[in-house]
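Sample A.
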Amino acid sequence: MFTVSEPAPPRHSSLLRTPVSIAPDALDFCRLIGRGETVGWAEATAEPLFLTRLLDAQAERCSPFRVFFPLTFSDSLAAGHPNVTVTALGGADAGRRFFAGGADNVVPANISDVPGLVASGRLPIDIVLLQVSGPDDAG
């Protein structure tokens, strides 16, 4: 099961979301990602590969959207989706394939700068993909 945050009722701040659990086979990124929104995820060994592979499989039928990742070691998201704009901290390692034609969307910053960039709105992230472990005996 996955927990997805659905938009909160209008009386709440637009930043609040209500968690909803979704089975993996029912996860529809095209329904969750709005036109022009940015999907972000953690880097390197924390990259949620199952989710990024599912996003890759569904990407072409979604409205145009953006993705942001600090660094990737995987090839789980293809570089050729015409409706996906990729932004990253650098074009290193497996992320290099996204910037073969130029580095227009490379953010010249250190990984430690990302929280401040997101908080200030200079690097907007609308949807975050996280990989977490399941509950243990204590919940």
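Sample B.
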Amino acid sequence: MKITKRRLRMLIKESILRLREQARSFVCPAPTQDLELNTRNRNSAIKADYIQYGPLNLSDEAYWDRAADHWRTTPAVAKESNCSNCVAFDVSPRMQDCMPGEIMSQEEIEDALEDNEEVKTLGYCWMHSFKCHSARTCYTWAGGGPIKEDEVSFDWQSRGESK
């Protein structure tokens, strides 16, 4: 079978485009690699009335009282609705590789999730684009998480890039 130069160029171009797409999907989100960007995004989430990311100190009962008022519940229930169980909190293996350091190993994260125990680690918030701690929360919390599979992480990333 003979391949023409034109066909060969087209095959090479298609391969390069496919590889470029694959490489983009493996790139860590910019805030995980850029401290200034991460801090700017996190600080915006702290200050925004509709997000109110926090608390800075987990023993800040006034924060939990405000969160409880926002959700029309008790502080004890508000404390259970944290990043560790938010649908946008990414602790997938590939995201753990993007983090600056390990707090919990992937195995410890998986064991904690399996045993319905608290996950105490850094993850990535796809809603607000910053690294966050599993014990904190915000007003945009949504149950159903965390993200623990690379495939789901890639899906969230591709949705964010299409905005």
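B remarks: The mean pLDDT is 86. The first helix runs from residue 5 to 25.
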